[in-house]
Write a structure and sequence with these properties.
With 334 residues, the chain is of the alpha/beta class. Helix 2 (49-65) packs antiparallel against helix 10 and helix 4 (101-110) runs parallel beside helix 11. The strands form two sheets. The chain has a six-stranded mixed beta sheet with strand order 2-1-3-10-4-11, sandwiched between helices. Strands 7-6-8-5-9 form a five-stranded mixed beta sheet. The chain has eleven helices and eleven strands. It has helices spanning 2-30, 49-65, 80-87, 101-110, 146-155, 170-182, 194-202, 215-220, 267-280, 284-292, 302-323; strands at 38-42, 69-73, 95-100, 121-130, 134-137, 161-164, 187-190, 208-211, 225-229, 255-262, 296-301.
Length: 334
């Protein structure tokens, strides 16, 4: 009798198990990421190249995923405010951040930030590159070339004001490298993105702008004049414009637009977003904006981006110490 009862209980138990499995498995299939809209924090204020590129990429990402991306601009601190928000977000793939490699690495070397650049995040992808950045002035400026700028800054210590997208941005670092090598006392005026930094120059609030790649369009429109480029090679449309590298400065501004998430993002989420951003870079909308803001095509996976960021930390920390910009890193990377 006891044996029959045990057998009956076993059969009932197994029946419940299999019925539960039939209910759970289809539900798991329905829950494939993403189930809902995704929050994409943009590390700059609206209107600049970073914002325009993020919005263009979002169009392609949304088409691939079939879910909406809600873009949220969090300028300030050279990207630190945006990074801090994503660092404390739940690692479920519904809060991501688009920023750049210099904002994530260079700034943390120069000033203390509330996260660990190489520990607090999961690398997702890089989706374009920009090198054609430059120091620019208004057309009516008495400074006609880079030597004019240096002569003026030497004769007028603490008076030359320049704008940038923020503290620790690559465009800030470029001027720090020049200032330390030549002993110049320059006045840095940081802003919350490239657009307001350029507006400050056009409005006559600063003497120059250490400008992102959008300077080319402003120059073609007769609104600014470049003094020196931060690119690896001379800008094709400005063959007479020298680069910092050829003038003897150990600096090239290789700006990657990147996507990061909180530490601990599941591998399937990373893979899905890698593919989504790869597809986005191939859309007509993205290619048009890419050309308009002077950036170049580039893509790499999360694993490749992770290696780049680690290598950049080591290289940039040494460069900053050698140039006298820092004595020690302001933030621990891990």
């Amino acid at each position: 009798m006891n044996r029959e009862k045990l057998r009956g209980r076993f059969v009932v138990g197994m029946s419940i198990f299999f019925l539960s499995a039939l209910l759970v498995l289809p539900h798991a299939a329905w829950c494939e990421y993403p189930e809902r809209q995704i929050r994409l924090i943009v590390g700059m204020d609206p209107g600049g190249p970073a914002d325009l590129l993020a919005r263009a990429a979002a169009i392609g990402v949304q088409k691939y995923l079939g879910k909406q991306l809600i873009l949220e601009n969090r300028g300030g601190g050279g990207g630190a405010l945006a990074h801090a928000q994503v660092a404390i977000a739940k690692p479920d793939g519904y809060t991501l951040c688009t920023t750049n490699n210099t904002a994530l690495i260079d700034m943390a070397l120069m000033q203390k930030v509330p996260y660990k650049p190489l520990k607090s995040f999961t690398s997702v992808a890089a989706y374009c590159i920009g090198e054609n950045t430059a120091l620019v002035v208004k057309p009516d400026s008495p400074l006609k070339n880079f030597n004019d700028f240096k002569d003026y800054a030497k004769k007028n210590p603490g008076k030359f004001k320049y704008s940038t997208p923020g503290v620790g941005s690559g465009l800030h670092v470029a001027m720090e490298v020049v200032g330390h090598k030549d002993g110049l006392q320059l006045v840095h005026v940081p802003h919350k993105g490239s657009a307001p930094a350029m507006t400050a120059l056009l409005g006559g609030h600063v003497d120059a702008a250490s400008a992102g790649s959008q300077w080319v369009n402003y120059a073609k429109g007769g609104q600014v004049r470049p003094l020196v480029s931060y690119a690896r090679q001379r800008v094709p449309d400005y063959p007479d414009l020298p680069t910092l590298k050829e003038l003897g400065y150990d600096f090239v501004h290789d700006l990657l637009a990147i996507v990061i998430g909180p530490a601990g993002l599941p591998a399937d989420v990373v893979k899905k977003m890698e593919t989504a951003f790869k597809m986005a870079t191939e859309t007509a909308e993205f290619k048009t904006v890419l050309a308009n803001v002077g950036r170049d095509p580039f893509y790499c996976t999360g694993a490749e981006l992770d290696r780049h960021l680690k290598e950049r930390w080591v290289k940039t920390e040494k460069q900053f110490k050698d140039a006298g910009i820092i004595k020690e890193a302001a933030t621990e990377p891990y």
